[in-house]
Amino acid sequence: MARLSVVGRSVVRRGLEEKLTGEARYTADLKLPGMLHARVLLSPHPHAEVVSVDTSAAEAVPGVHAVFTPFDDEASGLFAGDMRVLDTRVRFVGDEVAAVAAETEEEADRAIELLGVEYRELPFETDAGKALRPDATDIHEGGNLWGGEPLVLERGDVEAGLREADMVLEETYVVASHSAAPLEPRAAVARWCEDRLTVWKTSRGVHQDRAHLSAALGVPEERIRVVGPHFGAGYGAKDESRCAMLAAVLARKAGRAVRLEYSRYQEFVAGRVRHGAVIELKVGLKRSGEITAIDNKTLMNTGAYLASGAGELRRAAQGGLYLYRCPNVRYEGRLAYTNSPVAGSYRGLGAPQGHFAVEALMDQSAKSLGIDPVKFRLMNHVGLEGQLGRRTSPRDLVVDTQPVEGGIPFSSNGLRECILRGAEAIGWGTAVEEAVEPHLKRGVGMATCIYRGGPGWESTARAVLQRDGKVDLHTGVVDVGQGSHTVLGQMAAEAFGCGYEEVRVVSGDSDVAPHSPITAGSTATFSAGLAVKEASEKLRNGLLDMASTYLERAKDGLDVSEGFIVAKGSGERLESVAVLASRMPGKFMDAEASVVPGSADYIVNSFAAHFALVEVDLLTGSVSVVRYVAAHDSGRIINPLAAVNQVEGGVSQTLGLTLSEELVTDGASGVTLNGSFLEHKCPTIGQYPEIETIFVETEDPIAPFGAKALGEPPSVPVAAAVINAVYNAVGVRFTEIPLTPDKVLEGLARKVEAA
Amino acid sequence: MNPFEFVEPESLEEAVSLLTKEPGRAEVIAGGTDLLSELKDGLRRPERLVSLMGVEELGGVRWERDRVWLGASLTLGSLAEDERLSGEYPILAQAARSIATTQIRSVATLGGNLCQRPRCWYYRHPGFPCYKKGGVHCYGVNGYNRNLAILGHGASVMVHPSDMAPALIAMDARLESFGPRGRRTMALEDFFAGPNEQQMQEHVLERGEIVTGVFVSKPPSDARSVFLKAQDRTGEDFALASVAASASVSDGAVTRARMILGGVAPVPYRSQKAEEYLVGQAVKEVESSKAAELALCHARPLRHNGFKVILTKNLVRHAIETILKQ
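^ Those are the sequences you sent over. The predicted structure of the assembly is below.
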């Protein structure tokens, strides 16, 4: 792989200093002159008609300037498919019912308490399976099965594949719903200037937020500006919610700026959670170790609204469809509305649930066949050539990053090397060092991952050479804390030919930034990166035109390197970019590029293999991860330190899904019981294992500088790697996560009884 | 959070008078780690908070000839880090170190730990008017009761969350209090009150009465002890179950035993059956699993918490094996 000068270096992350010193300003820190404070009333009922809202007592509270109820004109706007700004039907405990704005937060609290809401309670259902029964109450028009029918994806003939198998294994896996639990709760500040609305919000896509606001409020997009200040994490969960709309309507009613910040409890309940899932999986095996069929029936709980449920249901399929070389695969996915908190995007979008089931059953398959789990993966994992079969999609069409059909090769595939290098690093095949105490049992386990490699939506970038010789990079992509601005800045510097410090990133403002998709699906580096690279190369080209005239030398003999115009070949520095820039005829020089990312010939995917060494306490049932190895193929790594951060963050975060986190709803009332950091058990630094990260650096030919997706893959194989290690330690196959001490102790007791 | 008046008296008499002047409107606050979260969640709305942190005599550790006095406003952090205490009463430091986080331990007090309210999710959620908040219904009985009682439940299936209490009871600690009727002491074991005796509090203090401290006698030279605690999140969490065990052994036989279970009953649960089994047994003859069975022989698990019976038995067994090896 060719060495580059800025790409591949661990330059210091943008915004790091401000965050470390506390200077960074987040949405809730903003203060505007005359700003009011808003509060929201959440429904106490899981399913009810809002019959009336008596606002007189609330409006009489001194300091109250606006009250917003579902009966106001502004309430009926529809966004994100099935959600109104405020609805006369509430569908879960936590659904927003009304909002008020007052001079102080205390006055707003008081007004909320004095709202007289009359509800007519309706039957409710929080369980996805029961919600799909014919006699269940309809939560939305058209019934509780989203789309009216299951999503069916298939390649080959699964029934035939199961018939030709020597052995069929079958298991049902259950994944609980949990919260993304971002440290920063969602917040928005809204201000109107005549008919123009400005909203500062916790955003992962200023243009998508603008579109939602426009649709919901009936205000043209051109009159809405959305700004995303520093972002206190969201992991995907901070889109398509009502927070900003409520602030905007209250601000218009009050004629003042309005700030709304959700409380911690509100963020847990009215934020977005991971989809709970029940996965019935069947695998057909030949005695030789060949996989003849994979049959997957998945039921997911999307809660009261769809949010990103459609994408979630689709992505949950991909592990079963594509991770293993198999001619006969089938996925039948059903997404159910229930009267539970809304499930939405959360790191991995369904893939962690799907991979948990697939990789747990593959571990069991290897064991049943008497084949080592690593060897079984090496025998069966999908290779560079892709799946068998013939391509059915048109050959000139960009290949889906989540294909079903066979016959399409990958642009790059380092899965095999991930497995081999990870296995070596964890010491696979050598005896596990025993714990000191006899009641602590150790074991190792592994799991693999396939994930979209980065091609997403059309992306635009603009590079501007200013008269001071610096380059402003305009991108609409919001840095959600993962470091995308740093990485895009590195790409711009590399492509243009200057130092990283010479690039400024201008972003997060829908009035300024070129139209961009949301930061989602691990696409920012790849998709925005392609646009950044192309725009920066164009700018370089423009500068070389000018240099050619100015230096009176042929353009094809010139290059830009480290902020200088140099002679090609010799590298002799002829003039600095800064001097040339100061002599530009115009005030600046710019170049823009729009790119539809992807390839018509290849599937672009990222890969990983994870290995866990766990310790199970037979007395307490607690599982701790002692050591962890995460080997990733995300192509060329743009910023090694930021990349390691991504992997370590993804692994440690997903230990919550695996071992401890669950958002619990009371069956009788529909009330979420544990919306707090104390009782929704996110892992803390005390639970973080020693994590070794390995990058298998393939250089992807389609990707910008060869760099593929890395944001979500680290969260995908974690659950299965850990649960497989627990099996190795204690000999019990656990199929429900989070694997909390109660499940471990009961599982161990069942094993003793069986023996 | 509702506005309130904050007063910081300097003497016990003044504190008691502030608490009794307008009964029901004032609450005691020390470290505030429990009370403040109740105020924020709207579970209580006192008009006045009477802080004990200005009352000098409630602080510190006082060493006497054959016992030690631990002040009610001694922080759990100081308790955990006191070298002499760790040496002479290791079980107390073990319990203190297992509680919450460094930050919380630096303000949370011993008295507060003994007087804290239930952690039950129904109790802590403002939407449930539960029995322990003055309602008629215990939602835990038929609700999500994974974390709730397996022993000794009555009108409520709450569990007492204190980790210090089992450890102190295992050391035969006595509690000292001061109230409108003056000063009194009682066995710490008798301080706690189950839901059938007390609805709105988990102890026997009268209105205006304040915990002033705890006396712990010097343990005999042949004493040994251990505190074990199981949590969902190791460190930083309340107990799913805890066991405080102490025993004396002479001439190869157990002469005294204490077996106190925490996190499993509405009050710290003393297992006399296990103690009776142990006393008089030759150390070599002790079957720890038999003691564990006896300790949990009255267990009545609820729908979701059968695992706590297994868990607590495991802890009892391990505690006995640990102290008999010491």
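The domain at 1-50 of chain B is CATH 3.30.43.10 (Uridine Diphospho-n-acetylenolpyruvylglucosamine Reductase; domain 2). The mean pLDDT of chain B is 96.

Shout if you want it in another format.
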